[in-house]
Amino acid sequence: MRILVMSDTHGSLKALRDILEQFDLEQFNAVFHLGDILYHGPRNPLPEGYDPKGVVEILRSYKVGYIRGNCDADVDLKVLGLAEMPRISIEYFGDFSFLLIHGEQFEENSLEQFLNAKDVHFLLHGHTHIPKIEEFGGKVVINPGSASLPKDGAPRSVLTFQIDGHNISASFYDLTLRQIYMEAKWILKDTKLLRER
């Protein structure tokens, strides 16, 4: 089973085209966008290839699960042809559970406290534009980074998961260099997620 996760495209048609040049979205069991889809926001510069209308035309032709980000407005839902866009979602793939959220909530609230109250294996979020893997009490927090406006020297990136029974791997892809730049693997043993070293 394969999953692709993107975040923070902020209306960049270039970012979306780079993703599509490297990945056939039809070959994934699920594709998710963790928010900040079309609008660049008042705190960000215009991303390269800024063309929200072009992004909409492409995204509407794929089945994508969306999470609403802090830059996503009601009009974005309308042009994307969506009745609603949740701020949080829990998804299950095989024996693995994922909580999807944009992440602006963690600017003022503790991510670790939030995660402690949730019975999931993975929490996936965007918002910071910085890719990361963190572990808290046997749960894994992953940020795929931004496909358009990376920060802190990170590359423009997306994330893929490969699930094979009780094994799961995460691969971060650099959209500019067109290669994996970070990977991690876990195994599920008696409902506990253990990272393989």
Plain-language structure description:
The chain has 197 residues and is an alpha/beta fold. The protein has one domain (2-196): Metallo-dependent phosphatases (Purple Acid Phosphatase, chain A, domain 2). Helix content is 16%, strand content 35%. The protein has a seven-stranded mixed β-sheet with strand order 3-2-1-9-10-11-12, with no helix packed on it.
From the structure above, extract its key features:
Purple Acid Phosphatase, chain A, domain 2, 4 helices, 197 residues, seven-stranded mixed beta sheet, alpha/beta, globular
Average residue pLDDT: 96
Identify the CATH homologous superfamily.
Metallo-dependent phosphatases
Strand content: 35-45%
**Poorly predicted regions:** none
Amino-to-carboxy terminus distance? 22 Å
- Give the % helix: 10-25%
**Spatial strand order of the main sheet:** 3-2-1-9-10-11-12
Number of helices: 4
Summarize the main sheet: 7 strands, mixed
What Rg is obtained from the alpha carbons, in whole angstroms? 16 Å
Output the helix-strand order.
Answer: EHEHEHEEHEEEEEEE
The CATH topology label is: Purple Acid Phosphatase, chain A, domain 2
